[in-house]
Design a protein that fits this description.
The chain is mainly α. It has 3 helices and no strands. Helix 1 crosses helix 2.
Length: 71
């Protein structure tokens, strides 16, 4: 089931405990790959594109790069 549907249902208190637990489990699994990528030499920034438009993600990456830049 789509995570966005489940999180919207949760906000409206229209979700079963089983579906809420499945949503949490799925979101945690989706984040596991980021932890693996972070261990790779040369990886400086990363983002996902779920639930947030790509332009906003790219601006966050740019700001992060500017903040982390050593002058």
């Amino acid at each position: 089931m789509d995570i966005d549907i489940l999180t919207t249902a949760q906000k409206q208190k229209k979700i079963t405990p089983e579906d809420e637990n499945q949503a949490i489990k799925t979101m945690c699994q989706l984040n596991d790959i980021g932890a693996d990528f972070a261990k790779i030499d040369g990886v400086n920034v990363m983002t996902d594109v779920s639930g947030f438009d790509l332009g906003s993600h790219l601006s966050e990456i740019y700001i992060g790069l500017q903040y982390g830049r050593k002058n």
